[in-house]
Amino acid sequence: MSKDERNFRNPYARLPACLPSSREKASQPPQVPPELSVRLLAALEQTLVECDSAYRHAPSADTSVYTGTSGVALLHLHVATTLHAEDHRKSREHLLQAQSLLTHCLSRVPSHSITFLCGAGGPLAIAAVVEAGLGNTDKAKSLLQQLKELYTSNKSRFSQLPSELLYGHVGYLYCLLFINAYLPGAVSQSLLQEVARVAVEAGEKGRQASVPSPLMYTWHGRHYLGAAHGLAGIATLLLQLKTEQLPSPLAPTINYLTSLQLPSGNFPSSLESCHDSSHHSDRLIHWCHGAPGFIHLLSHAYQMLGEGRYLKAGEMCGEVVWKRGLLRKGYSLCHGAAGNAYTFIQLYHLTGHTHHWHRALKFAEWCLSCSERVTRTPDAPLSLFEGSAGVAFFYCDIIMSSRGKTPFPCLEIPQPKITFTCS
Ligand SMILES: [Zn+2]
């Protein structure tokens, strides 16, 4: 398939408000037109009803956050702690829905993986927060203990894992950062640092003599570079530890990654694809592989390290996602228009330039009306990362953008409007 066949032509490309030439600084928080806001809210509610009904009638064997039941529980938690944070009754209703979905998951969490997105860590972390939110402190404490023991009870097994986000070290690190976002201080800095150190040491061992990056990793034999399986995702998690002293190999690793940006603004999915002479390095505009995953790394790098090259590279990501980000494959968070739209949310909050916000709104409009355009039905059509729950998460974040930055789920640390305690 040629790269042109992977995406629709962007029908909004000539809209004046969406052009970088119209660059202006926002003087007020981003606004959603009232009619669009009504449609986004209705779609969000409708998706929640469909998901709850489907999972109640036929509990899924897949308990993961990525494609299974826990992902819908996370959507409920997100709505409870952002959109309805100030409406105690509605917030509690969503926490109770999440609790009900998680009851099924906790009895069958996967034993082969411990990460947030694809392993036991996600259901345990979400359940700990939900139980704390419902005031069930002892239950929350017990779940938190189980989550910590995934690492502490078998550290040597942990060190043997890969390091990437979906199945590896930083996928577990995300569980701990997620807990501290909702239950401040529940995970110690020393535990966070210890887990991060395992990931850094694995990257130092994986270093390639021929590649000028102090950290390098493989997953299934390939040197992946993107957010889901690769170096960009690992570095994004390590940057978010926000320690005064970053691991010393991190900045040169990010500089190396930035140097791999292609003339289009996209990034290759793996080192192996860089050596592909048939343009395969510039194929995918996905959160999982390509520029829509790198934007989050570049944004955190710019905020932490302050170098303009990261912002420039981030703006280039925005251009290629705008041109080629309306995918025929679908509208999901992982490889679809909703996940790609977080590129513009990220750039808007980084720069305050209104054309990024207009682009995010156009991608939301596209998702609202895209069901008849999508050429492939996802394997998990209601799920968080491949289906409609993720699109609903994006709608919630568009609505909430007037209240501040809305992080990419399961990669960036959440910013709930209310927090809980389990002590
Ligand atoms: Zn994907």
TrEMBL record:
<keyword id="KW-0479">Metal-binding</keyword>
<dbReference type="Pfam" id="PF05147">
    <property type="entry name" value="LANC_like"/>
</dbReference>
<feature type="binding site">
    <location>
        <position position="288"/>
    </location>
    <ligand>
        <name>Zn(2+)</name>
    </ligand>
</feature>
<dbReference type="GO" id="GO:0005975">
    <property type="term" value="P:carbohydrate metabolic process"/>
</dbReference>
<dbReference type="InterPro" id="IPR007822">
    <property type="entry name" value="LANC-like"/>
</dbReference>
<dbReference type="GO" id="GO:0005886">
    <property type="term" value="C:plasma membrane"/>
</dbReference>
<protein>
    <submittedName>
        <fullName>Glutathione S-transferase LANCL1</fullName>
    </submittedName>
</protein>
<keyword id="KW-1133">Transmembrane helix</keyword>
<keyword id="KW-0812">Transmembrane</keyword>
<feature type="binding site">
    <location>
        <position position="335"/>
    </location>
    <ligand>
        <name>Zn(2+)</name>
    </ligand>
</feature>
<dbReference type="InterPro" id="IPR012341">
    <property type="entry name" value="6hp_glycosidase-like_sf"/>
</dbReference>
<feature type="transmembrane region" description="Helical">
    <location>
        <begin position="165"/>
        <end position="183"/>
    </location>
</feature>
<dbReference type="GO" id="GO:0031179">
    <property type="term" value="P:peptide modification"/>
</dbReference>
<dbReference type="GO" id="GO:0046872">
    <property type="term" value="F:metal ion binding"/>
</dbReference>
<feature type="binding site">
    <location>
        <position position="334"/>
    </location>
    <ligand>
        <name>Zn(2+)</name>
    </ligand>
</feature>
<keyword id="KW-0472">Membrane</keyword>
<comment type="similarity">
    <text>Belongs to the LanC-like protein family.</text>
</comment>
<dbReference type="InterPro" id="IPR020464">
    <property type="entry name" value="LanC-like_prot_euk"/>
</dbReference>
<feature type="region of interest" description="Disordered">
    <location>
        <begin position="1"/>
        <end position="33"/>
    </location>
</feature>
<keyword id="KW-0862">Zinc</keyword>
